[in-house]
Amino acid sequence: MARNAPPRHDPPTLTVKGRDMRLRTLGFLVLTGLAIWFIAVNTGSVSIRLWVPTVTLPLWVVLTATLLVGMVLGLFIAHRRRARR
User: Fold this and answer.
1) I want to staple 13 with a disulfide (CB 3.0 to 4.6 A). Which of 20, 45, 46, 56 is the partner?
2) Helix axes 59-84, 23-41, angle to 10 degrees
3) Would you kindly state where each structural domain of the chain is located, as residue ranges?
4) What pTM does this model have?
5) Strand pairing of 54-58 and 45-49?
6) How does 21-51 read in b/e, with b if 16+ C-beta sit within 10 Å?
7) Where on the tree of life does the source sit, at the highest rank (predicted)?
8) How far apart, in whole angstroms, are the C-alpha atoms of residue 84 and residue 6?
């Protein structure tokens, strides 16, 4: 039965300083660095209307909250997909 099994495909990797790293991990690190840089350079204040109240906050707070909400939703969706399989 093992003869008919399809070949196992490992995730693509890249060697960095003698260590094998998955391309997904490297992509995640690059995107995280870009997001942190983008948040750090946007420090001005913005007014945001939340249905009824209007609040004034530094833009970096708004961007950080948006990033965290996006990460939580992404983890939730990934967890649900993994549970379905």
Assistant:
1) 20
2) 160
3) 1-41, 43-85
4) 0.68
5) antiparallel
6) eeeeeeeeeeeeeebeeebeeeeeeeeeeee
7) Bacteria
8) 23
- SS in 3 state form for the chain? CHHHCCCCCCCCEEEECCEEEEHHHHHHHHHHHHHHHHHHHCCCEEEEECCCCEEEEEHHHHHHHHHHHHHHHHHHHHHHHHHHC
Handedness of CA 8, 13, 15, 21 (dihedral sign): negative
Q: Measure Cα distances from 26 to 12, 36, 59, 69 in Å.
A: 11, 15, 27, 22
What value does the CA radius of gyration of the chain take, rounded to a whole number of Å? 20
Q: Could you read off the pLDDT of 35-79 as tens digits, one per residue?
A: 999 999 999 999 999 888 999 999 999 999 999 999 999 999 988
Q: How far is CA 54 from CA 46, 76, 85, in A?
A: 10, 30, 44
pLDDT at 47: 94
- Residue 78, phi then psi, degrees to nearest 5: -65, -40
